[in-house]
Specification:
Shape: globular
CATH architecture of the largest domain: Orthogonal Bundle
Structural class: mainly alpha
Strand order of the largest sheet: 1-2-3
CATH superfamily of the largest domain: Intergrase catalytic core
Radius of gyration: 25 Å
Number of strands: 3
CATH topology of the largest domain: hpI Integrase, Chain A
Helix content: 40-55%
Order of helices and strands: HHHHHHHHHHHHHEEEHHHHHHH
Number of domains: 3
Length: about 450
């Protein structure tokens, strides 16, 4: 029996592979065959697939080479006005950069990439950290989509004037219906590149990343110039990572936990999803782990010592190994979560490879990815924002801009407010300098105003 391009992937691959492909929006051989030959490490963008499964798929297409040619004939490139995520983007041939205006001579280029998409992908893959790849891909994705859809140009044809126009665009992406929308799965038709206008610091970050991209492309002799060179951003002074605007106060956190406690009863969450969310909140606030560290952790990384001291082994930035304290509040949250999952609470009975944060039934794989964790928390923060929107619109706006990394900031701030010594917090966060940890010593604005009002009250008559 010969495979046809319209066949479902489930007809030719195992259920596990088919489930992973379906979750990525790939349901037929036509969709899959286009993904394989035009992407290096194409499978990395499909959660739950893995290299071994990818090799089985590649072997299948190697045995049926005619599938690729038949599927290519059906490709409909992204149309002007159509917005799709990076992993499904097929740029029209006249805008893919093969004939970009500022392409360097091919004979001097040290990249094998023929198109702008392939060149940018090569740059992204130079960075090993998943979080860095994800952040850089987001900026490159936005620029390529804007160049193709809004300017009708290839990335390698952008001028300095185009870069200046892009700086203005990200401050106010228009038309909004095309570019802006609430956080959605990348497989959703409602996905958009922006959730709103970028703040000055985010604009500065985007310009910085894109400048670095083009510098690298120039160094590889792929393009001859960097249109983002020298582009300034007014008001883009970088804020401290511990900026009070990216930290939940203790009062705000109590409100957040109240809503979390009623997710399955009042807000339509499944019981499994609610228990997982509460655990992520408590573990994140109690340990200050980075999102990638939390997602990579297994039960085998946790050690409860004889004196009831708890530690979790992590591999942080720069592949540095460290121990992070697991205090009683966190251990209690872990016990509740494990009990709900049907996993023993005694460390002696733990299987060391069991993911700390599990996927739900129907989700592919064992643990979850940082991207999925962000989706989960954004959904939750949106739920809380709706609860408080009428009584506290400022907090609602704050919640809608929150990310997974806010829990790390919140952990450090609360720890210092509750009397944990600065050096202990530094060591737990694994900061190289105590000066970095000192950024978390900001005071609550309301408390600060009250204290100053006491000192500088109304003059006596």
């Amino acid at each position: 029996m010969q495979p046809m391009i319209g066949d479902a992937v489930a007809d030719w691959f195992s259920q596990r592979i088919a489930t992973a492909l379906h979750a990525a929006g790939i349901k037929t051989l036509a969709g899959l065959t286009l993904r394989v030959p035009r992407r290096r490490r194409w499978w990395a963008a499909i959660p739950g697939l893995g290299q071994a499964s990818a090799q089985r798929i590649e072997g299948f297409f190697a045995a049926h080479p005619d599938l690729t040619e038949r599927a290519r004939a059906l490709v409909i490139p992204v149309q002007v006005g159509e917005i799709v995520p990076w992993e499904t983007l097929v740029v029209p041939a006249d805008l893919d950069g093969t004939r970009g205006q500022f392409r360097a001579p091919r004979a001097t280029c040290v990249l094998s990439a023929s198109s702008d998409y392939e060149a940018v992908q090569a740059w992204i893959e130079r960075h090993e950290a998943e979080a860095t790849q994800r952040a850089y891909k987001k900026e490159a994705e936005r620029l390529i989509l804007w160049a193709v859809v809004q300017r009708g140009k290839a990335l390698s044809s952008l001028t300095s004037e185009d870069a200046t126009a892009y700086r203005a665009f990200v401050r106010n992406p228009t038309p909004k219906a095309r570019w802006v929308g609430p956080a959605r799965s990348r497989a959703s038709a409602e996905w958009r590149p922006f959730v709103g206008p970028l703040a000055a610091t985010s604009v500065k970050y985007a310009v910085s990343v894109l400048g670095a991209l083009f510098r690298w492309l120039v160094e590889q002799h792929y393009v001859v110039a960097n249109p983002f060179a020298g582009l300034k951003v007014r008001g883009g002074t970088a804020s401290s990572p511990a900026d009070a605007g990216r930290v939940f106060t203790q009062a705000e956190w109590r409100l957040i936990r109240v809503v979390a406690d009623g997710l399955e009863w009042s807000y339509g969450w499944s019981k499994d999803a609610a228990y997982r969310l509460r655990f992520v909140l408590d573990f994140g606030r109690g340990t200050g782990l980075r999102p990638s560290e939390l997602c990579d952790a297994t039960l085998g990384d946790i050690c409860i010592e004889e004196l009831n001291d708890g530690w979790i082994d992590v591999v942080g930035k720069g592949a540095k190994k460290a121990k992070v304290s697991v205090p009683p509040l966190v251990r209690a949250a872990l016990n509740r979560y494990l009990t709900h999952r049907g996993v023993p609470t005694s460390p002696n009975l733990w299987h060391p490879d069991t993911p700390l944060v599990a996927k739900l039934s129907g989700e592919v794989g064992g643990g979850i990815t940082p991207a999925r964790l962000l989706d989960i928390l954004e959904r939750f923060f949106e739920t809380v924002a709706k609860v408080v929107s009428e009584t506290n619109p400022l907090l609602a706006e704050k919640l809608r801009s929150a990310t997974t990394h806010w829990m790390r900031h919140t952990h450090a701030t609360h720890a210092l407010e509750l009397g944990v010594p600065l050096l202990a917090v530094r060591d737990n966060l694994r900061h190289a300098s105590v000066a970095t940890t000192s950024n978390y010593l900001h005071s609550d604005a309301a408390k600060r105003a009250a204290e100053l009002s006491k000192a500088f009250g109304e003059p006596a008559e």
